[in-house]
Amino acid sequence: MGLKPVKKGWNPELWVSRRPLGIGLHKPNNFAEVFRAIGENADNLAYAWRILQDGVCDGCALGTYGMRDWTIAGVHLCNVRLRLLRLNTMGPLDVGVLEDVEALREKSSAELRELGRLPYPMHRKKGEKGFRRVSWAEALDRIALKLCKTDAHRMGFYLTSRGIPNETYYAAQKAVRALGSNNIDNAARVCHSPSTVALKESLGVAATTCSYRDLIGTDLVVFFGSNVAVNQPVMMKYLYYARKAGTKVAVVNPYREPAMEHYWVPSDPESALFGTKITDRFFLVQPGGDIAFITGTLKHLLEQGGLDERFVEAHTTGFEALAQALRAARWEELEAGSGVSHQEMLAFARMLMEAERAVLVWSMGITQHRTGEDAVQAIINLGLARGYLGREGCGLMPIRGHSGVQGGAEMGAYASVFPGVVPISPENARALEARWGFPVPGQPGLTAPEMLEAASRGELEVLWSVGGNFLEVLPDPERVRQALEAVELRVHQDIVLSSQMLAEPGGEVILLPATTRYEVPGGVTETSTERRVIYSPEIPGPRVGQARPEWEVLLEVARKVKGDLADRLHFPDTAAVRQEIARVVPMYAGIERLAKKGDAFQYGGPHLCAGGVCPTPDGKARFRAVEIPRPQVPPGAFRLVTRRGKQFNSMVHAAKDPVNSAPRDAVLISPEDARRLGLQPGQRVWLSNPLGRLECQVFPAPVRPGTLQVHWPEGNVLLDPSLRSEKAKIPAYKEAYAFIELQPHPAPGQGPDVVASGG
Ligand code: SF4
């Protein structure tokens, strides 16, 4: 039986309200976003239009060609892309402003970006007030000279996911490995690294097993710790069609996310006019409660005969050990661990039992814990137990937030894997050496958080950051600043200014102006969440100063340092990079043929593990029982998680989240807790813990009682940088605690006047 068809005509049962356009209801105004984008890009409208029309979106990882995709007919465009457009169309900044760094420190990150594109290489030495313009030759010679004198273990390279294409990731990791280091990492480390680890261990794959099309007309879609309405907005259009096909939607999350409940799809007349009820049922687990919740659900499935025994028998190993753990699990422990009753878990189990097919989607609410790998494994266990693998309408989908991030690790720009997600080992290094013709180190390198720790110990002499902003991304910003300032040479290669560029030089700081993906001659590719490798052509239009493609620059420096390898570190153009990727990463075969708008292929086909057969040595998927985490929260404290508002990555786009009206300094607290503590909406409070303090305003919202949510990156001051997952080493952004101090706050060193209890 195929997927259920999308019913034609309008379906009032799914409407949020009969009030046209949701007038009087609280919702984002997507039409206003279009006018805003037109105004912002007015000086370069024709170019902006060509980018939208012909480029591959540099926002999230759903993936487009122009304003279309491979999942649905009609326009694919959202406000995230519109907000990012200006980064691609604005002119150069006046480099004179960089002569005095102190003056720039007053500016917010958004104000720094708005100054314009970085047009020229710039240089600043320790003790100097600011930067001076230098030639490319001088900048690259300085970098090469320092790299020549630096032990390969004392250098680190980081690439963000901001629109960075596969060609740049590939060239960067090859250059770094030629320098003798595996100290290269990318933004996947801080979002889905546990997904890569757990999927690879269990299924032998490191990406979604299904396609977006499987969402539309399947029986059930479950979102665990994922807010696609904000982070992947066009996914809501897919869900609108899914709802019209009769697909049910469940959300497992500590916050009843308003946009996951009701959504107005702007490009569909019915949904734009009357809205669409998206979620059938929310399960309000406590932060980190997913493992206990899923374990309880599995226990119910086991007891109720709700397993797909044929699938388990034919296609998996390790079930008996899991079953024993499930039988031994006590309901009191599962309820305490999940924060919900066993009846709630039963309700979820019944939804699954009624679903012959389902897609399980997860995101950072799952991964950003010390137990991130276990939480992903728990979802995999659930999917395997129900046989949701390798067939239409079924899948396990770690949904990616940024357009470059799926390809980053697959290209090997990662401290723990070589190209093709091949684990770093001496044996695999030898195989790569044979291909590349130079020695490749066989030990894993430093992950991004480890690079910063090495820097603070004085063990990192060179840090090269392609995009990104550690100051705003990693926990404990003050320690991050100190670490950055201890590095002898920092290289920041980017399209705009960021606050980390302004940190004091440990020795010297060099800024290198980069092109956007749309400016790269020969075009580039990205890999979407659904494993689609998509060609994005060069878009004709204005160019900024002396900005150069990042991939070229990284290799040029490597050639300067390793002159004897120069012939092996050179590509004439991006097409040549793609040709080598096709040879070195077998699953990317076909990338060498991508050459014009719309060219794409989905590696692995629509379903990985087709027919339930996995690329593991025995062809079977592995169950693994996981322990219920018991995070300790001191008496009187609230569990605290960080969340995103109107932003992309760490780039904040609006002072207020249009979805729920929360200002950036809001602390989301349950109405019950607010009432119990006598807190009024808007009241100023301090959140505190031994790591730091954050001033907030009270914002009652449907979060789980006993928990708080604050925006990220502002909440980084409350995060413990030493907390990270064991294998993937992801920082625990969703695993903190805080006390509420009522104003007026006490002087430093004294106890707070009043401490409000998290119960
Ligand atoms: S949903 Fe994602 S890929 Fe699609 S337009 Fe928006 S940001 Fe771009």
From TrEMBL:
Superkingdom of this protein's organism? Bacteria
Keywords of the record, alphabetical order, are: Iron, Iron-sulfur, Metal-binding, Oxidoreductase
What is this enzyme's EC? Answer: 1.-.-.-
Establish whether keyword Nucleotide-binding is in the entry. no
Where in this chain does the record put each Molybdopterin dinucleotide-binding domain? 643-735
The entry's cellular-component GO terms read: membrane
What are the protein's GO molecular function terms?
Answer: 4 iron, 4 sulfur cluster binding; formate dehydrogenase (NAD+) activity; molybdenum ion binding; molybdopterin cofactor binding
Q: Which segments constitute the Molybdopterin oxidoreductase domain? A: 117-559
Transmembrane domains' residue ranges: none
PANTHER family per UniProt: PROTEIN YDEP, RESPIRATORY NITRATE REDUCTASE
Protein name from the UniProt record = Putative oxidoreductase
Organism source for this protein?
A: Calidithermus terrae
